[in-house]
Design goal:
This protein is of the alpha/beta class. The chain has 15 helices and 11 strands. The strands form 3 sheets. A 6-stranded parallel beta sheet has the order 4-5-7-9-10-11. The chain has a 3-stranded parallel beta sheet with strand order 1-2-3, with helices on one face. Strands 6-8 form a two-stranded antiparallel ribbon. α8 runs parallel beside α9, α9 packs across α10 and α11 runs antiparallel to α12. The chain binds manganese (II) ion.
Length: 424
């Protein structure tokens, strides 16, 4: 199904006067409101192809129906999100779950929905039916050169698919590591991984980047070979100027100060971008902003400060992507909530009075610094985000629209109830 501009307009007309009241109230308080709206309109967050279906836990999966059955239908779903919020104009593919059969027709299909192709993701954390060697004991780190070679070749193939579709980056996340002390020589595992990455790096086109994603742990792990931002940055620095560190919010040990990590990576010019999600205890499955919205704001506060300090374009110079798993919510509703949470945190960060914060920091006025951040965080900017969305052609209330128009019900009718879209 497609959502017409006309139905969005009707939806907006119905909600307009209530929206206008709220918007006028807050807009009079914010002299730079127009520049914030402009930045929000430009800001887009890529949707990963694997988040369009129901995810699973280690124990089970409870699909909700109407899931996309093909790459075309995954692009259709991102098209629905983008029509509603005008901020989801990119898809991030996962190879081999989304191998395109016909590049040209896939590209045309995506372009007709205003969708471009974000970073492509390789997968050496699973064995595929047709592969020769197993990744049971790792891939790029493996002690056996033949297995490293197979994993390198896969990454090179992913780059080739990405080139055909217009992607500009390869994201590498490895579940390489060890489950027990003594299983692995840390130094050898690091060096093998580095050499493998160097070979992949040498296949990158001139205008491409490689994102090295780190993760502190998997439930059965003793050590990860790319376990934190220090290790990722080591790889990125050794690889060269096209290599960057990717921050996935859920990939840290509990209570890690992610905003500080972000500030320092930006300072070093090595921050690739983000995978957005949230967690209460560990891992990356929950909706971004659902558990720790203040942390999300503090991260965006550092992002805006750091990007401005380096003269970066907020919308284009870093990679912005959601990476979550939807186990109990409708995936599309969850993604709409995710994009909204990101936009709100970004809008709030744009509102922080940098000069006053700087003065408070310079004079050690700790109380004033806290007041500045928290009064911004507690400002309700939802109507500003909605205004930006409406001006861009989206819906004032995307989730209300989605429900009132029975989008999921239409998808179930079209696609049925049983298909499994995630690849896991
Ligand atoms: Mn991730």
């Amino acid at each position: 199904m497609r959502i017409s501009q006309q139905t969005i307009q009707l939806h907006n007309e119905k909600l307009f006067s209530a929206h206008q009241r709220k918007f006028d109230f807050i807009a009079t308080e914010i002299p730079q409101v127009e520049s914030i709206i402009q930045k929000l309109i430009e800001f887009n967050v890529a949707i990963p192809s694997w988040a369009l279906g129901t995810g699973g836990t280690r124990f089970g999966r409870f699909p909700g129906g109407g899931e996309p059955r093909s790459l075309e239908e995954k692009i259709d779903d991102v098209g629905l999100l983008h029509a509603l919020n005008q901020s989801s104009g990119a898809i991030s593919l996962h190879i081999p779950w989304d191998i395109p059969q016909n590049y040209q027709s896939i590209q045309q299909h995506a372009a007709s929905l205003g969708i471009r192709f974000d970073a492509v993701n390789s997968n050496t954390f699973q064995d595929q039916p047709d592969q020769q060697f197993s990744y049971k004991f790792g891939s790029l780190q493996h002690m056996d050169a033949r297995i490293r070679k197979q994993a390198i070749a896969h990454n090179k193939e992913v780059i080739k698919h990405g080139i055909e579709l217009g992607s500009k980056a390869l994201t590498v996340w490895l579940s390489d590591g060890s489950s027990f002390p003594g299983q692995l020589n840390f130094r050898k595992a690091f060096q093998n991984t580095l050499e493998s990455l160097q070979e992949i790096y040498s296949s990158l086109p001139a205008d491409w980047k490689i994102f090295i994603e780190y993760k502190a742990f998997e439930p059965n792990f003793y050590a990860m070979t790319v376990g934190d931002w220090g290790q990722s940055l080591l790889y990125a620095n050794k690889l060269g100027p096209k290599a960057y560190t990717l921050v996935d919010l859920g990939h840290h040990l509990p209570n890690a100060n992610i905003e500080q990590i972000v500030a320092l990576l930006l300072m070093e010019g090595k921050l690739a971008g983000f995978h957005f999600n949230d967690s209460k205890y560990g891992d990356d499955d929950l909706t971004v902003g659902s558990i720790k919205p203040y942390q999300l704001f503090l991260i965006f506060n550092e992002l805006v400060e750091g990007m401005d300090a380096r003269g970066l374009n907020h919308a284009a110079d870093l990679g912005w992507m959601i990476d979550a798993s939807h186990n109990v919510k409708d995936p599309l509703e969850d993604l709409l909530q995710s994009v909204e949470a990101i936009m709100l945190a970004y809008a709030q960060a744009l509102l922080v009075d940098r000069k006053k914060l700087n003065d408070a920091q310079s004079s050690n006025d700790v109380v004033e610094a806290q007041e500045l951040l928290q009064s911004t965080f507690r400002s309700d900017l939802r109507s500003i985000v909605a205004e930006a969305r409406m001006r861009a052609g989206g819906a004032l209330d995307p989730i209300l629209f989605y429900r009132e128009h029975g989008v999921r019900q239409s998808l179930v009718k079209e696609r049925g109830t049983v298909f499994k879209a995630t690849g896991l």
